[in-house]
Structure formats: C-alpha cells, structure tokens
Write a structure and sequence with these properties.
CATH class: Alpha Beta
CATH topology: TIM Barrel
Number of helices: 15
Structural class: alpha/beta
Largest sheet: 6 strands, parallel
Helix content: 25-40%
Number of domains: 1
Shape: globular
Mean pLDDT: 85
Number of strands: 12
Length: about 375
C-alpha cells in the first residue's frame, strides 16, 4: 500500500513539476542491466578513479544544434531544493554524488563507490557533468540501466554559473542534457535493450534534476535551469569529502550525525571524494541501524514537501561567495557577464515566488535553508 501510494505521488509530481515524463523507478528491475553488462564490465577497475590532468581529449564543447529542451518547471517547484519534509515516521534520505569534470582533464570513476552501493542495494543519485558523460560513455550507460541509480545534470564543465554570460549559461546547462540524450539513445538501440520495450521506461529522455557547481546560483542561472525543465537540487548535509584532509571517519560522522529524515547528502564519486569509499562502508551500516532507508532524489521528492530556498549555498547563505572571487581571478568577467551575473547568490524570481507562498500561508517552505 505504501509503495503504491508513493508511486502515485511520484506520478503526480512528474506531471505537475517535471513535464510529461512519468518516472517508474519503483517498478524497474535490473534485467536489462545484466543483459547488457556482465558483472565483469560493471566492476570497478583499480586506478580508474584517478583524475588525469592535462588530458584535453574531450575538451571540445558539446554541440547543441537541433537540441530541443524540455518544458519548463512549474512555478511551485522553482528555486533551490535543500531537502524534503517527510510525513512523521518516514526515515528516508537521498545519497547524492557529483561527477564533475573540467576542461584540461579527464576526471575519474570511483568504482569502489558504485560496487559497494550495488552490493548493499542502496539507491543513489549521481549529478554528472556533460564532459564527464562524454568521456565515460560506457559507465554512464551502465548507470542509466541500473534501477538503483538516477542521473542528474551538473553543468558541462563544472562552471560557476554566476560568472557567465547568458549564452555561456545556456551552453553549460543544456550540454549535459544533449550528452545524456545521445547516450540514452545509443543504449536504447542496443539489442539487449531493444528487445525489451519497457527496459528504459524509468529513464527520462533528458535529466530532470540539476545541481549547481560550488553551490552557487543567481536569478539568471536559476531561470535557465528551471526553464530547461530541471529542478535545482542542492543539499542539507555536506561532508566535505573533496578535501583530502577529511578522514573517512569524519566524512562518515557527517552523514550519520547530520542526516535527518528527508536529507539530501552530497559526496563525490569522480576521484575527488578522497576517502568517500571507506566512509560509506562506515556510514551506511550505521544509517541502516538507525532505521534509515535510501531513495533517489526524485523518489524522495515524491514522498513529502520539498524545502525550497531563494539562495544557493553550502551550509549557510553567503558561504560560497568566495568562489565568485576565485573564479573572477582565473577568468576575468566580460562586460556582458558583469551585467548579467551580479555576483550574488540571490534568485530574485525564486524570492518573489517564496513571498507569495508565505502570504498564502505555506509554512513548510521556509525562506532560508536549515
């Protein structure tokens, strides 16, 4: 009964906020995954997690010619989603992992993370950069075919969108959509999938969720994301795993001690989560012992009420402003960029929507994150 209710809610959420796509993640099985990929192909390869700096093989921008973006997100779901308020008694959280890749490098694929999640039957969401999708084509197709996993958009090359011109924002936001669409079409054409019409029914043509790099956004970038049919998913539990000085024990402690029902936890699986594989082996058993279960972000959204804020940040408003100055030092702003990206994390459109909600008496959507 509970599973049926959640699936019904997921369908409603999809129709109202995510366009015409109706996810069926609760009903998917792994038959196609194993039909297309033997266990040896799925297994992580030692050393594959390493970031190859100085490799420009995949640096060319993804071409968008002929690409059609999805319908815009409904007004009620616009803004930065931090977590989900769940009904009393529900202890569900979403583990998320970023798969970033900048130009001038080929980032890693940390198979130890994926192998362990599959071994434990733990669902997770991965926010993949467009360049990462192109440079890891076989791996992204495996992730698409796996019913445990969901793929989101993490810009083309992990850019701070607050520092870009409107055209550059468009490229960063839409390039991963095109890369994903191409990879999905290639997977769908394989014999192992083509013989099963429903094999990819739970996989959208394009990602329906998005994560801002560095936790930074402004009005222009938020509008671009929401207008492209994606919900902006941030987090309320930050483990700090890209810092090589953060031990596995401290990363695990952040997950176990800071998570609460409806939390969205951010980690990395591209070789920049230095001690994340070990941390998961500590945290997941402890979270299970506390009664938590795991869902993809889209599933979690269907279980309760998203907490939407007008700002993007890591732990508190304003704490990611330093990335504006670091980015500006590396890539000085053009006049067009300065006028369009006002170096503020505030999304004016989202703020106005939130004000309207408060006037209408909507206490479950606070104006600031927790």
């Amino acid at each position: 009964m509970i599973a049926s209710l959640r699936l019904s809610l997921l369908t409603v959420l999809s129709a109202s906020a995510l366009g015409s796509y109706t996810p069926t993640a609760f009903a998917r099985d792994d038959a196609s995954l194993h039909a297309c990929f033997p266990a040896s192909a799925l297994a992580g390869v030692p050393g594959e997690e390493k970031v190859l700096r100085g490799n420009r093989t995949f640096d060319a921008p993804i071409k968008l010619k002929g690409f059609q973006q999805a319908a815009p997100v409904a007004d009620a779901m616009r803004g930065s989603i931090r977590r989900v308020n769940l009904p009393k008694g529900e202890k569900v959280i979403a583990l998320t992992f970023d798969l970033c890749e900048q130009r001038g490098e080929v980032a890693g694929y940390d198979g130890r993370i994926f192998d362990y999640l599959r071994q434990q039957g733990v669902k997770a969401t991965f926010f993949a950069g467009g360049k990462w999708i192109v440079s890891h084509r076989a791996r992204i197709e495996q992730l698409m075919a796996d019913p445990l996993f969901e793929i989101g958009n993490h810009t083309e090359t992990h850019a701070n969108l607050r520092l870009l011109s409107p055209e550059a924002i468009r490229q960063q936001v839409l390039a991963p959509q095109k890369a994903f669409e191409d990879a999905r079409a290639d997977l769908a054409s394989k014999q192992c999938v083509a013989t099963s019409p429903d094999a990819l029914s739970g996989v959208p043509d394009q990602p329906k969720i998005f994560r801002f790099p560095y936790g930074t956004c402004n009005d222009a970038s938020m509008k671009a994301v929401n207008d492209a049919g994606m919900l902006a998913i941030q987090w309320d539990v930050s483990t700090g795993d890209p810092d090589p000085h953060e031990s596995a024990e401290r990363i695990a402690a952040a997950m176990v001690n800071e998570a609460k029902p409806g939390s969205i936890i951010v980690n990395h699986a591209n070789g920049r989560g230095w001690h994340t594989p070990e941390a998961l082996r500590i945290a997941i058993p402890k979270l299970k012992a506390k009664g938590y279960t795991f869902a993809t972000v889209t599933e979690l959204l269907a279980m309760g009420k998203p907490v939407i804020t007008a700002e993007c940040y890591d732990r508190k408003p304003g704490d990611v402003n330093r990335y504006d100055f670091l980015g500006a030092l590396q890539h000085p702003l053009s006049a067009a960029s300065k006028s369009s990206a006002t170096l503020t994390s505030t999304s004016a459109g989202a703020k106005e929507a939130l004000k309207k909600k408060h006037k209408a008496g909507d206490p479950a959507t606070p104006s600031t994150g927790q």
